[in-house]
Amino acid sequence: MIKKFLRLFFLINIFYIQVVCSSENDIYKKIDLFGEVLEKINKEYVDEVNQSESMDSAINGLLQSLDPYSAYMSPEIFNEMKTETSGEFGGLGIEVSMESGVVKVISPIDDTPASKAGIKSGDYIVKINNIQVQGKSLSEAVDLMRGPVGSAIELTIRRRGEKKALTFNIVREIIQIKSVKADLLKKNIGYLRLTSFNENSGKQIKKEIENFEKDNLVKSYILDLRNNPGGLLSQAIRISDFFLENGEIVSTKSRKISENRKWFAKSGDLIDGKTLIVLINNGSASASEIVAGALKDHKRAILLGENSFGKGSVQSIIPLKNSGAIRLTVAKYYLPSGKSISEVGVAPDIEISEETDDFRIKTETDNQLNYAIKLLNG
């Protein structure tokens, strides 16, 4: 019996080693094949090829095959990204991703050239200064949109519902992001607009709420997360906690056990249970979806507007030996209900679409905000 067991154990180990070796051999064969293809291109292709750029494209192609948010950053792009995180940078003011080979607008940022020109969430950028985007990586497309402050750029846009392509001429500016705006509407509604989740967002929101509560005029609140592309997870958790007494806010799940985490609300609702409406649209992504989803799952807020973007994944910037980096998806977000945000987003309780092509947030054309005000005063 023991001999049979040992023989079986030995055979299983031999089989395992063969499978592992076979798998490794297949990978090495593919690497050899890649080298052969690169050599053939270098010798036979009609035009001279920059091998370094070809390798960068291949690396980026590998990462982009995983999901739209994983990407390669060359040393130059990585250095520019580190500079831009200081809070002031030149550009158009749009958050973008890649979909079906073209650049998709996640959201335009308030009071930026893109927002003023009329770029909308969900728009597809097909040409940049008459250069086709199809076939380029996201990093390459973003690089094309960069340029000196004050210089003009032409974007050709495809928009759902529009038969013809739309052309926008935009002048690049210094982008300064103000994450929180507050206003008193109809003398008794506290309006809080959050345009991004940066390191000061929670502090600013809390200060505005305390100002509203101090005067004892506000009977209800509107939290506007439309066209908010997200930002810091820590701020999303903190801001969700402002309106909750207890319960789970969000969790992350990953292949790494260390990345599997849950965050919970602490006791203390800053607005003391007052009615809260959260405005969302297709430009509400990532951290915005965490806040909206947590408040919806706990039945703490009424969500009004359109379905959110569906970016429910965590990216980590991993530096490389060449001074570049890769942006790699390492985990996914899950709402208190256990639902994933990825690709499906958060659905509003009351669906109100933008009424006109001239729609602008917090103007006379903002039918979503007007509906929320009527609902609270009704």
Tell me about this structure.
This protein is an alpha+beta fold and 378 residues long. It has helices at residues 2-44, 51-64, 75-84, 113-117, 138-145, 201-215, 233-241, 287-297, 367-377, and strands spanning 71-73, 88-91, 94-99, 102-108, 124-128, 131-132, 152-158, 166-171, 173-176, 180-185, 189-194, 220-224, 248-253, 261-264, 275-280, 302-305, 313-319, 325-334, 350-351. It has 2 domains: 88-175, PDZ domain (Pdz3 Domain); 178-314 and 328-377, Alpha-Beta Complex (2-enoyl-CoA Hydratase, Chain A, domain 1), CATH 3.90.226.10. The protein contains 9 helices and 19 strands. Strands 3, 4, 5, 6, 7 and 8 form a 6-stranded antiparallel beta sheet that branches. A 6-stranded mixed beta sheet has the order 10-11-12-15-16-19, sandwiched between helices. Strands 1, 13, 14, 17 and 18 form a 5-stranded antiparallel beta sheet that branches. Strand 15, helix 8 and strand 16 (302-305) form a beta-alpha-beta unit.
